[in-house]
Amino acid sequence: MTTSRKGMAPGAGDFLPTRFSLSSLRRAAANCKGCPLYRNATQTVFGEGAADARLMLLGEQPGDAEDQEGHPFVGPAGRLLRDVLAEVGIDADETYVTNAVKHFKWTPRGKRRLHAKPSARELNACRPWLAAEIEVVDPALIICLGATAAKSLLGSSFRVTRERGRIITRSGLPPLLATYHPSAILRAPDEASRRTMRRDFTADLRRAAGHRRTGGT
Questions:
Q1: Which residues touch 120 (CB under 8 Å, ≥6 apart)?
Q2: pLDDT, tens digit, for every residue of 47-78?
Q3: Three-state DSSP class for 165?
C-alpha cells in the first residue's frame, strides 16, 4: 500500500518521503533529524513487520539493545512480548511492531546507557512517522504497550492504570487497547508483582487476539 503525504506536523514531517510505503518511510527515517535525539543514538530504529498486519504493537522508544541492533523489541522486553504473543495464539510474524519515538533517549551511568523517558516535545516531533506507519499498515487494532505509547495517540491525560485492557475508539484512529509495557513487568519489584502483571498482560493480549479474529465485532 502506498499513499501520499498529507497534513503532517513539524519535526519529522520535514523528512517524510513524498509517497508512503514502509520501505520508503524506513529509508527516509534513517536520515531524520526532526528532534535532537538523533545526535546521541546509534541509528534510527524504525518499525518492522507485515505491511498488512491486523495488529500493530506500539512501544515507547528503542532500548539499548534495539539501538545497537537497529530492530525494535530485540531485548529482554521483546522476548517476553514474543512469548506472550505465542501463548495467546498471535503469530508475531503477522504483526507490525514499532515505537512512538524512533531514536534511543538515554543518560550515561558509568559505562551503561540508561533509558530516559521521551518528552512531550520529542513525542510530537516523531509523531509524523507513527502517523504514516498507521496510514500504510491500516491495522484493525493498535496495542499500546505502556503509558508513553498510549499517550502519544490518546493524549497526556490517558491513564493505563485506569483504562488497561479496554478497546478504545478515537476519531481518525483504528481501535486501540492499552496494556503494560513488557519492560514494566520485568522491572516489577518482586516475583508476586511480576506474576500478577504478566497474568494481566496475557489477558489483554488474549482480548486483542479475539478482536483480531472477529474483526472487532
A1: 156
A2: 999 999 999 999 999 999 999 999 999 999 99
A3: coil
* Domain housing 38: 3-214
Cα 34 to Cα 37, 42, 129, 136, 149: the distances in Å are 8, 16, 10, 21, 19
Count of beta carbons in the 10 Å neighbourhood of residue 19: 11
Alpha carbon distance 149, 109 (integer Å): 25
User: Nearest CA to 65 among 54, 79, 52, 51?
Assistant: 79
Comparing CA positions, the residue from 106, 101, 125 lying closest to residue 116 is 106
- Please count the structural domains in the chain: 1
pTM above 0.85, yes or no: yes
Collapsing DSSP states into helix, strand and coil, what is residue 140?
coil
CB atoms within 10 A of CB 174: 18
Span 138-178, pLDDT tens digits: 999 999 999 999 999 999 999 998 999 999 999 999 999 99
Domain containing 127 — which CATH number?
A: 3.40.470.10
